[in-house]
């Protein structure tokens, strides 16, 4: 698996230099809980399991984070746009929700710690004959998560901060943003029935391939992207604690154990 490393220093390059303290930690201690927001339609990172409970890699990381702080975990699912849009007004404390740091997003939220890295891949129906690599999506309809880095990639408008310019070896394709689970269900109907292909993380792709039995990955990994914890603007003391806590969870093997549980591989690597 391709490994991508992005240091916290690089993430801080996209954080305003003005430092001020907020009351997040005081609020967490007073309530005895940390409120984490996740997405619930992004298996295996966040989803509703058969017991109608939130589950997934991100949920387990959030549980470990709360345990390290010595508080309870409260999960909420306000929706991706609300999470990444900032201005949380104290409703939530943190978002462990598989967010890729970008320059635009860093204008409204902070990314104090990268906690895993995962390649993006191209998925097609198992009966697809004409799409064999990303070069073949020109003029095709490609499913992507709404507001995701994959949508930006298909639209040829994606930059990973601090990394070389992304190469787009295809001409214009039609990005079809939406719920990723629904996208995969549509692709499983057959080649070109509703979608020609999907760009997604390899973790999500492998989960959907197993679930449907009708999909496959083609070509090489497209790019490897960092996924970071998100916090709202205004509390750099809280950001520093988040950085420290995630670093400790990596150092003591907690993140690796969670990674092995969900992916049977180490996707956390040395990202810090």
Question: Brief overview, please?
Answer:
The chain is an alpha/beta fold. The protein has helices spanning 8-12, 24-31, 57-69, 80-84, 149-154, 180-187, 202-212, 236-251, 254-263; strands at 33-37, 41-42, 46-48, 54-55, 72-76, 95-99, 109-125, 141-145, 174-178, 197-201, 215-232. The chain has 2 domains: 8-116 and 227-263, D-Maltodextrin-Binding Protein, domain 2 (3-Layer(aba) Sandwich), CATH 3.40.190; 118-224, D-Maltodextrin-Binding Protein, domain 2 (3-Layer(aba) Sandwich).
What does it look like?
This protein has 272 residues and is of the alpha/beta class. The chain folds into 2 domains: 8-116 and 227-263, Periplasmic binding protein-like II (D-Maltodextrin-Binding Protein, domain 2); 118-224, Periplasmic binding protein-like II (D-Maltodextrin-Binding Protein, domain 2, 3-Layer(aba) Sandwich), CATH 3.40.190.10. The protein has 9 helices and 11 strands. The protein has a 6-stranded mixed sheet with strand order 6-11-7-10-8-9. Strands 2-3-4 form a 3-stranded antiparallel sheet, covered by helices on one side. A two-stranded parallel sheet has the order 1-5. A hairpin with a 3-residue loop joins strand 2 and strand 3. Mean pLDDT is 89; it is low at 1-21.
CATH-defined topology of the largest domain: D-Maltodextrin-Binding Protein, domain 2
- Estimated radius of gyration: 18 Å
Q: How many discrete structural domains? A: 2
Strand content: 25-35%
The main sheet orders its strands as: 6-11-7-10-8-9
- Determine and state the CATH class of the largest domain: Alpha Beta
Global mean pLDDT: 89
Summed up, the helix count is 9
Distance between the termini: 18 Å
Give me the strand/helix succession: HHEEEEHEHEEEHEHEHEHH
What does the overall shape look like? globular
What's the quaternary structure here?
A: single chain
Determine the CATH superfamily of the largest domain.
Answer: Periplasmic binding protein-like II
Biggest sheet, open or closed, and with what strands and sense?
6 strands, mixed
Can you give the helix content as a percent range?
A: 25-40%
CATH A-level architecture of the largest domain: 3-Layer(aba) Sandwich
Give a count of the beta strands, DSSP E runs of length 2 or more: 11
């Amino acid at each position: 698996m391709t490994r991508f490393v992005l240091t916290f220093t690089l993430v801080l390059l996209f954080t305003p230099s003005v430092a001020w303290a907020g009351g997040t930690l005081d609020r967490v201690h007073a309530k005895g809980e940390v409120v984490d927001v996740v997405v619930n339609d992004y298996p295996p990172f966040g989803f509703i399991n058969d017991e109608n409970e939130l589950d997934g890699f991100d949920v387990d990381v959030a549980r470990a984070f709360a345990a390290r702080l010595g508080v309870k975990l409260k999960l909420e699912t306000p929706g991706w746009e609300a999470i990444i849009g900032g201005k949380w007004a104290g409703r939530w404390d943190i978002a462990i929700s598989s967010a890729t740091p970008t320059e635009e997003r860093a204008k409204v939220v902070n990314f104090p710690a990268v906690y895993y890295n995962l390649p993006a891949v191209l998925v097609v129906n198992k009966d697809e004959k004409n799409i064999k690599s990303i070069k073949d999506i020109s003029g095709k309809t490609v499913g992507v998560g709404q507001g995701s880095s994959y949508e930006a990639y298909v639209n040829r408008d994606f930059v990973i901060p601090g990394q070389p310019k992304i190469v787009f070896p295809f001409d214009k394709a039609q990005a079809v943003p939406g719920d990723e689970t629904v996208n995969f269900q549509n692709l499983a109907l057959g080649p070109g029935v509703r979608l020609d292909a999907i760009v997604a993380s390899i973790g999500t792709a492998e989960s959907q391939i197993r679930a449907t039995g009708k999909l496959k990955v083609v070509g090489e990994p497209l790019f490897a992207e960092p996924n970071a914890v998100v916090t709202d603007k205004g509390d750099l003391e809280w950001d520093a604690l988040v950085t420290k806590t995630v670093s400790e969870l990596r150092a003591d093997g907690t993140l690796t154990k969670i990674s092995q549980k969900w992916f049977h591989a180490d996707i956390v690597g040395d990202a810090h």
